[in-house]
Amino acid sequence: MAVAQNIGVPWIMCQQRDAPSSVVQEMGSKRSTQDCRRFSIFSGTLFPEQWSVAELLHGRTLPNIIRNLNQPKWGHLKNLHAALKLGEKILTNSTVKTTKYLDGWVELTTYTSNIDGERLCFLSNTKMDDLDVDLQQDGKYFVPAWSVSILQDCNKETYNTAKVNVQTSLIVKKLHENDTPLKLSWEWAPEPTKAPLHGQGGFKATQLLEQKAATYDESDYLWYMTSVDNNGTASKNVTLRVKYSGQFLHASVNGKEIGSQHGYTFTFEKPALLKPGTNIISLLSATVGLQNYGEFFDEGPEGIAGGPVELIDSGNTTTDLSSNEWSYKVGLNGEGGRFYDPTSGRAKWLSGDLRVGRAMTWYKTTFQAPSGTEPVVVDLQGMGKGHAWVNGNSLGRFWPILTADPNGCDGKCDYRGRYKEDKCLSNCGNPTQRWYHVPRSFLNTGSNTLILFEEIGGNPSDVSFQITATETICGNAYEGTTLELSCNGGRRIISDIQFASFGDPQGSSCGSFQRGSVEASRSLSAVEKACIGKESCSINVSKTTFGVEDSFGVDNNRLAVQAVCT
């Protein structure tokens, strides 16, 4: 359809095996910089914004986990973009030649402009060891293991995927020094579920609908409701079986919840009791965002999506309910009644005995905005799964009760070797997210209102508001580059240099730096002069800056700095 429009410029899409030849396919995955660079080597020319800012959430507020720049990845990829930009005209109109060195471990890919003969080279090392490469008249290069260097004019290194010349920061979450800790006072209101639990929906169909098609993204929630008759005179034990396509399913029979389950694709099976006469089966399907990557991701089913939904009796007889008449209701009644808006007046808030651990419950509290100008976060520790709003503005979904696999974090991260999803894991055993960003533009000078919808049961007693502050910043930069350090706003300045070493310092992150075998004596004083008392500073990493001779150090001198922001 797109190609048939004949608009005169190429269409762009994600990589997909049936894409028309005239469509430009981009590499839009969360892969390593090394993979990104090799994509360029083999004539890949388009990188989406995912490479630098993670996902963009249309119509929703970015949570704290991705609000801050993901350093050092963001800055490292920013430098990659800049290096590629220098060779843009060559990359898009050139002839390409690849030469192998050192038994094929090293590849030199040369792009030569078809217009003026200018060159751009990619020098890649696919070995698990560092290598020194001699390109004769184009110079000698140190290429770290499993990395790619970009050579401007094929004789000047402007970028290497393993040489990270970017700041990292240790950000703390704390109470502002001008504030005092206060316990929030809560009210609560039950989510009205009487109608859907009695099978009353907004429209009907004699099939099980796919959730995206039924909701049009109006809500994360879709009720599926049907009735089944038990013609006997006694109650009947059965098993309810639902084939489910994701992501969270709650099941009730005759108004009583019989179980819930979450996952991408699974079969839900729980025992149920059918009373004599008509019985109502109510299934609430909840999504937690939608698939946003991979071939044909838009076609991935959500919800019950065709089923089947079955009842199995004690005699192992199966009754398929998939073609029953199903009633549907999009969203929760609390959503429709704007319970999340403190000005709506639709919710009947209850105070006094706070109900905790209760599913399908709304909570409300008021608070004062934290002092200062630093970013604000709300700590939702103790909550289960649901959605949060401040002054009627959505902060997004929360699910702090869901924790990452406790296994797989060995404390070591080796970037070498092919990319795997379980490589360099961190935060094992902890909640996938606990703190959520509250934009200061959402906050009033006086009283503010936080409203939470709790889907599975939680306790808001420990919920609190904090600020985030950059207290420690660190940076690495190789000789010939510039190290930029910043306290990231918040009226903070660099007040102390805890570590500075130019030579061959050891370690790669805050708290791990140690002096190596060689060090320029002016390392600390030069950094202090450039940075102390400033919100940000830039240091030209060169022998001249640190007052040493040309013969000083090692082949790849590096500057490592750890500083304090106050």
UniProtKB/TrEMBL annotation:
<dbReference type="Pfam" id="PF21467">
    <property type="entry name" value="BetaGal_gal-bd"/>
</dbReference>
<dbReference type="InterPro" id="IPR041392">
    <property type="entry name" value="GHD"/>
</dbReference>
<feature type="domain" description="SUEL-type lectin">
    <location>
        <begin position="477"/>
        <end position="566"/>
    </location>
</feature>
<dbReference type="InterPro" id="IPR000922">
    <property type="entry name" value="Lectin_gal-bd_dom"/>
</dbReference>
<keyword id="KW-0326">Glycosidase</keyword>
<keyword id="KW-0378">Hydrolase</keyword>
<dbReference type="InterPro" id="IPR048913">
    <property type="entry name" value="BetaGal_gal-bd"/>
</dbReference>
<protein>
    <recommendedName>
        <fullName>SUEL-type lectin domain-containing protein</fullName>
    </recommendedName>
</protein>
<keyword id="KW-0732">Signal</keyword>
<dbReference type="InterPro" id="IPR001944">
    <property type="entry name" value="Glycoside_Hdrlase_35"/>
</dbReference>
<dbReference type="Pfam" id="PF17834">
    <property type="entry name" value="GHD"/>
</dbReference>
<dbReference type="Pfam" id="PF02140">
    <property type="entry name" value="SUEL_Lectin"/>
</dbReference>
<dbReference type="GO" id="GO:0005975">
    <property type="term" value="P:carbohydrate metabolic process"/>
</dbReference>
<dbReference type="GO" id="GO:0030246">
    <property type="term" value="F:carbohydrate binding"/>
</dbReference>
<dbReference type="GO" id="GO:0004553">
    <property type="term" value="F:hydrolase activity, hydrolyzing O-glycosyl compounds"/>
</dbReference>
